[in-house]
Amino acid sequence: MKMNYWVVLAVVGGIFSQPVFAISEAYRAQLEQSGCTQVDEANGTCHVGHTRHHPRDDESTGDIAREIDSNIAGKYQGEAVDYMEDAGWHSTNGERTRWRKNGYTAEFDMTSSGKLEGVSVR
């Protein structure tokens, strides 16, 4: 009887020790390609089936980069984060260096001291 207990315990332990992933690799690739996060896709603000770039016709990436640069260049990351949030951008990473808005992606160019040199917009 004691042997059966250990066998059952080993089987159950083996099952629960396997890694569990919240999303499949295929879905993760779709999210990456679309530029969406799971939260964006769940709340309907981004659709996984669309491609990453949906820029509006009335603004170019250069215009957007110049506008952001004029407000954040030379400032520390905290000040830049405040500006981006106030301007309606949404952070897409934990470091808060990559942002999305209206199909554009903006990424901070930072120095090692934490100051911003500028921004790249795609």
TrEMBL record:
<protein>
    <recommendedName>
        <fullName>PepSY domain-containing protein</fullName>
    </recommendedName>
</protein>
